[in-house]
Amino acid sequence: MADKEHYQMVVIGAGPAGYVAALRGARLGLRTALVDKRGALGGTCLNIGCIPSKALLESSEQYHRALHGLEAHGVKLKGVTLDLPTMMKRKDSVVEKLTGGIAMLCKKAGIDVYTGTARLVDSHSVEITGGASEAGEAGEAGQAGQAPEAGQGKAAESTAISTLKADAIVLATGSVPVELPSLPFDGTHILSSTEALTLQDVPKQLTVVGAGAIGLEMASVWARLGAEVTVIELQSGILPGWDPRACKVLQQEMEKMGVSFVLGAQVEARNQSKKGVSLNVKLKDGSSATVDSEKVLVAVGRKPYSDGLGLESLGVKAEKGRITVDDKFRTSIDGMYAVGDLIHGPMLAHKAEDDGFAVAEIIAGKPGLVDYATVPNVVYTWPELAMVGSTEAQLKEAGISFAKGQATFGANGRAMAIEESAGFVKVLVDSETDKLLGAHIVGPWASDLIAEIVVVMEFGGSAEDLARTCHAHPTLSEVVREAALAAAGMPVHSV
Predict the structure, then answer these.
(1) Which of 26, 262, 273, 422 has its CA 20 to 30 A from that of 464?
(2) Which whole-number Å values give the CA distances from 440 to 10, 325, 427, in the listed order?
(3) What are the catalytic residues?
(4) Whether residues 130 and 170 fall in one domain
(5) Neighbour count for residue 300 (Cβ, 10 Å)
(6) Is the residue at 184 inside a domain?
(7) Does some domain include residue 351?
(8) Whose CA is closest to 197, among 20, 53, 344?
(9) Count of domains observed in the chain
C-alpha cells in the first residue's frame, strides 16, 4: 500500500462538506482520500439527520392527512392505523439508498475511502486507527443497496493503523447535538435528535426542549403520530431570528395539530424515574410549573465536532468553538483547510456542500467562492418555513431603508385547490434601488419556492426582475411573484 499513501487531498469527514469536497477534487484530477469513522458515507445529514427526519416528516404527514385532511376532498377513510415499524423501515431504506449511492460515486471517481478514526500527526499527515476500506469495496456494498458497514473489506483489520500523507488536508467533521448539563442524554428518557429518529413506539407524552428547526420538526412528527407534545423554549417566540409573523403562523398551525408551547421558559431541574421525566420549569412571569412526560427531546442546537483530531497540539486557531479560516478556507496551519459546521456560517447541509465544492476548487488551483448572504434556510414543518437574506429587524438595525411586499396563499388558486391556504410570502427590497435584500415564506412547499428568489438575489436582481418574470398559472409560485409585484409598487392580486 506504500504507493497509495500519498494524496494531493485527504478529506476527514464524509458528511455533505466532506464527500462533496472529495468528489469535486477527484473530478478535478486530485488524487483524493476520504476518511470517516462511520461505515456508511453521508455523515450526520444522510445517516441520522436531514434525510431520515424528512422521511419521517413525510410519512407522518401522510398518516395525519389520512386521519384528518381528506374529507374536504370528498375522500372518506375508515380504520386508518399506524404501522410504525414499516414507517421506520421505509426511513432506513431511503437512508441506505442514498448512502450507498455516495459510495458508488466515490468508487467511480477513484476516491480511496478509509473507515476509521483520523488523527492529525502534522500539517501533512493523517493517522487512521480502526481499519481502512478502499472505495471499490464500499462502492460494491452501495450498489447492493446496503450502506457499507465498518468491518467490511480492509476495515475488518480493526487494529490496523494507516498513515496518509497529503499535500492538503480538509477538515469536515461536522457537528453534534448540544447537551444541557441539567438534561444529559441517556438515550432512553432524555433524547438527542438521533434517538428521536429511532423510537420503536409512539410516546404518550413528549417534551421538546428547544423551538428551533430540529425541535419543531421532531415535535411535528410525533404529534402527528399521536404523542401529546409540549415544546419549551427559552426565548419569547419559536425560531429565534426568523420573521416573527411567519413564526406566528407556524405556531398557530402546530397548535391546531395539538402541540402545546411554553415560551419564555427555562428548565431548572428534572426528576427522573422508570416511567418518565418530570421537568421543573420557570415561566416568564417568574412562577414555576411542572411538565411531566414519558420522554424528553433536547434540541437546543448543535456544536462543531473535532474531538480526537489533535487540533490543539498542532496549534490550529479557533474562536468560540469554530475553526478560524480565511476566505480560502485555510486554517492557521499551512496546507490545512476547514469547511462546513466547523467554521463560520449557518450549520446547514447545503452550506456545507457549497463549502466542500469551493475548497476542492481552491486546492485544485481554481477560484472557489460561497456567498453566505444567499444561503437559504428551511424548516420542514407543515406549513414549511423558508428564508434567505435579511429580516426586517436586521435591516432596521443596520439602518438600511427598505420596502416590503406581501402576498398570501389564501388568495392563490392552486393553494385553494390543494386545501393549503395558510401562510404568505414576504420580500424585502432596498427602497432606492429595488434590489432584493431578503425573503420569507411560510406555506406549502416553501422549501422549493425559495429557490427562485435565491437565484435572483445571486444575480443582484430586483423585485421588478422577479415580478416581470412570467409564472405558470395556477401555481404556488404565483404568490412569490405577487409579493414581488407588491414590493415593486405594482400589486395585482394583493392590496
Answers:
(1) 422
(2) 39, 30, 6
(3) 473
(4) yes
(5) 19
(6) no
(7) yes
(8) 53
(9) 3
- CATH code for the domain in which residue 245 is found: 3.50.50.60
| pLDDT at residue 155, as a whole number | 36
Predicted local distance difference test score (pLDDT) of residue 494: 78
Q: Which of 249, 229, 228 is nearest to 237 (CA)?
A: 249
Domain boundaries, position 457: 383-487
Q: How many CB atoms lie within 10 A of CB 184?
A: 10
Per run of 10 residues, the mean pLDDT along the chain (length 495 residues) is 74 98 98 95 95 97 94 93 97 97 97 95 93 40 30 40 93 96 94 96 97 98 98 97 97 97 95 90 93 96 95 94 96 97 96 98 96 97 98 97 97 96 97 97 98 97 97 98 95 81
pLDDT at res. 131: 57
End-to-end CA, the chain: 70
> Could you tell me the three cell numbers for 75?
375522500
Same domain, 281 and 319: no
Same domain, 123 and 137: yes
Angle formed at CA 393 by CA 387 and CA 398, multiple of 5 degrees? 110
Whether 75 is in a domain gets the answer: no
Closest CA to 235 of 262, 207, 255, 208: 262
Interatomic CA distance for residues 200 and 151, integer angstroms: 27
* pLDDT for res 160: 59
Quickly list DSSP for 330-355.
B-SSTTEEE-GGGSSS---HHHHHHH
pLDDT of residue 5: 83
- Phi/psi at 494 (nearest 5 deg)? -125, 165
Q: What is the pLDDT of residue 273?
A: 85
CA dist 304 and 456 (Å) reads: 32
H-helix segments, 42-179 = 43-48, 50-68, 84-109, 135-143
- Are residue 312 and residue 296 in the same domain, yes or no? no
Q: Is the dihedral of CA 113, 115, 120, 125 positive or negative?
A: negative
Pairing of strands 424-430, 436-443: antiparallel
| Phi, psi for residue 456 in degrees, rounded to 5 | -60, -40
